[in-house]
Design goal:
alpha+beta; Dipeptide-binding Protein, domain 1; 11-stranded mixed β-sheet; 4-stranded antiparallel β-sheet; 13 helices
Amino acid sequence: MKDGRGASRRRSSGFVALALAAAATASFACDRKGRPAASSSPITLRVGVAQFSATSPIAGLKQLTQNLSVENLARGGEDGRMQPWLAEAWQLSADGRLLTVKLRSGVKFTDGTQFDAPTAAKMLPDAVRRSFGSMFEDVEGVEPSGLDNLTIRFRRASMFHLEALESSIVKPGSNVGTGVYETIADSASELRANPEYYLGPPQIERITVSNYPSLRAAWAEALRNNLDMLYEVGPDALDSMERSTTISTFVFTRPYQHVMVLNARAKALRSIEFRQALNAAIDRAALVRSALNGHGIVSSGPISPKYWALPEDVHEFKFDAGRAVELTDRASRTAEQKLHFTCLAVPNTVNERVALEIKRQLATFGIDMAIESVSQEDILRPAAKGGYEAALLELVSGPTLLRPYIVWSSASAFNLGGFGNATVDTALTRARNAVTEDDYRNAVAGVQQAFMDDPPAIFLAWSQRARAVSKRFTVPSAEPGRDILATLRLWKPIADDRHATRN
């Protein structure tokens, strides 16, 4: 499988693996006002998830349902440039400090209230703070101009300002957004269609989400026709599901990477040369083949290889056995350096296979890595206190640079593990302060180089997942680089299928 560097450059806040949810189908008739009315026997798409947290605010069921009910002003394309969503267009002033935004007209929140420029002006500062933390400090003020236009004033110029348009628009203290669906009361497992959605109501009227102890258990329910969709299928199960005659699988590359974070404050990983040796010792292509069953994209660093500002000739992390031997020998001569460390990993099939493959590869260079299992909820607790040596995580890394910035910058409130170091901080700050595109491209190359010079992690592979949907439903194709759930509003049951689930 090719890595992202050789493909054409192309393009999901939070930082532990974030996700979208699935959808329910229903037939609609039209009343005399032209609005769709639900049929008396609505069709429901039953969605199965595995081991999802019911309480986590940044992952699990709550995040899943929010991703269907909340939208952003803009969203990143394959190359990381912003594309319209709730905002139709925008223009940044020559000095980079004034952003004029034209909003889409006719948008309503799922509670029926209007989304317009005066409302956006009140909500946007909190939205930026909630989504990107320290970027809020750059916002000097937001003012409406009529119902469809607003201006955002910044205290300083930054190329990150456009990427901050990806901030989520949600009413304060609630989960009310402008999305295709709305949650039912405080339920984290049921949604209903928004009949006044500005692009037209979805044909899917109701969504139910059931949480199972394992993907195997959810798959068994799908085979019994008790589920219509598996929300997320990992690389360990994808091959077997692709052979199914009743399920269609839709593979997509997520803007997250499998990453082994290295704590340079820990004695075992204090040596820069040792951390460089660890990066040189990992054959990422072999890891994708063996641990991810070929379902992953080889990583070349912390930035999406399709990011518009990443130079084509930038240095990349690569497997180099000779350099690994040389650096390991140097590190082993240091009196306090022992070629041993412990890595925290969540005990699921994919993480276990990735961790074991890393352990096997490092062992060929005389490096001993112990693996310590820890739950998904607990893995960041020792990281936040600095009480770890390494941790295997899935971290947001694209499609923009602002997303990895909030994970690795010490100035970010979302850097929950104290990740990174002074070298990386300096490079990220330079990128944030760049004003012209030329300066920004140079700064982006500098970020990549900083991660190589003083590596705070081993970037392994871009994560691939799949949605598995019953063939009783028609699912339109998504545009390149997007999850198939981007077409959610257009999903519908096959007209002559009598097995579609009804209430």
